[in-house]
Amino acid sequence: MINFLIRLFVGFFHWSIVGKKIKVYHAEGPEKDIFKDITGTVTSCDETSGSQQIKVLLDKPVLINGELLNSIFLLPRHKNYESSSLIALPIAVIVVKEIRVNDSSVLAMAMLKAI
Fold first, then answer.
1. What is the per-residue pLDDT across 59-90, written as a single tens digit (0 to 9) for each?
2. Domain containing residue 91
3. Domain count, the chain
4. HEC states along the chain?
């Protein structure tokens, strides 16, 4: 019910996460220590094949396996809690370094909130 109300509000006011600051926290997984409390700005939010892809330009680049990443992709873990939910609630995301057809190069799972 709350997600329905959030979507109604977001649609009415044309709110978008693009251009907003976000924080990734409570990370779990292979690179959890790197993604504990990172911040960045959402540069795009696209929907392809029914799933949302949120691209984030990081405030500070992160070093992973000798590769410096300036941006990451966040994939919402639950269909009904996507970027529009961030106006009121944090959402669970999968952190990946790039979008691939067969493998999304998962770095961590974490929570995401707008700040």
1. 999 998 888 999 999 999 987 778 888 878 89
2. 2-114
3. 1
4. CHHHHHHHHHHHHCCCCCCCEEEEEEEECCCCCCCCCEEEEEEEEEEECCEEEEEEEEEEEEEECCEEEEEEEEEECECCECHHHHHCCCEEEEEECCCCCCCCCEEEEEEEEEC
